[in-house]
User: Fold this.
Amino acid sequence: MDQGETVKFIQLRYFNVAAEEKSLTRAAEILEVSQPAIGMQIKSLEKRFGVNLFDRHAKGVSLTPEGKFFHEKAKEILVMANQLDRKMKSRGTRKRGIVRIGITPSLISTIVPNSLERCYDSHPDMTLLFVQGFAKNLLEDWQKDLLDFAFINQKIETSLSSSYPLYSEELKLIGDPEIISEIPSPVPLEVLQKLPMLFDGNDIELRAKVDDGLSNKVLELNDVIEISSYTIRKELVKQKRRFCVAPTALFSNDIQMGYCKAVPIKLNTLSRTVYLVGPREELMSDYQLVIFKHIKDLINENLESGELDWKKPNQK
Assistant:
C-alpha cells in the first residue's frame, strides 16, 4: 500500500458518483469533468489500496466486494462533510439565510406569495430566491448546485439528496367554457386535433407527448401555434381564441372567475407526480428545513382544498 499522502476528498466524490451512476460517462456529465479525469482518480485509489474497486464492462462499471466496502465508508465521510458544511454555513446568526428554490410556472401564484409571507413572519432574516423554469431545466440547475430545492417530475435518491413526492396531477385541456362543456370528457384525441391549440415553444416534452399520442392514432393537430411568453399564452386562452394543455394550477384564478374551464384528455401520458428535490432532511441547514416544512404545509393545504385538482402522490 502507498504510504504517501492520504486519500483526497475529490477522489471520494468522484468515486461515489461513479458508484451511484454505475457509469464513468454519466459521472463525468454530472460532475462536469472529463471521463479520463474520473478514471485517473479511481485508478489512483486502486493503486493505493492494491485492489480493484470496479469491474469494467461494456455497459459501464459495477462495484467489486472491495469497492462495495469502500463505497459505504466513502458515503459516511461525504455525508459528515456535507453536514459540517451546511451547519457551519447556517451558524452565523447575523447573516441572512438565503434559500434558492426552482419553481415551475404553474406554482408561481400558489407557492411563492404564501412562502414569502410565512417565512418572513417566522424568520425575517431569511431570504428566498425563486427561479422559474421547466422541471428538466430546474433539475439541471439543481445538479449544478445553483438551487437548494427544485420542483421536478422524477424521483432521485442519493446518499446526500432526496426527492420528496408532493402531489400528483393531470394536465388538462383548458379553454372556452362554452365549447369545453359541449365536448366529451375525457376529451378524445379526435376532438383535440380539431381545436385551435397553443403550446409553449420551450416545453418540448409536453408537445412531444401530445404529438406522440395523436401519431399513434394517425392524427395530427390541424391548427397550432407556439408562444414562449407565459402572459400572452394566458391572455389568448382567456380571450377564448386558443386552447392549451396545462395543469389546472396554472389557470386556477381564471377558472374560478369563469374565464376558462379545465377538462381531462384521453391520453394517459399526461399524468405526473411532482417532487421537491433537495438535501436529505437530516442534512438540511436550519433555513432549508424551515422552507421545506413551509412548502409541505402549503401543498397539504391545497390538497385538502381540492381547488387545484391535485391528488396525494403516487409513491409506487
Observations:
- The chain is about 45% helix and 20% strand.
- The first helix runs from residue 9 to 21.
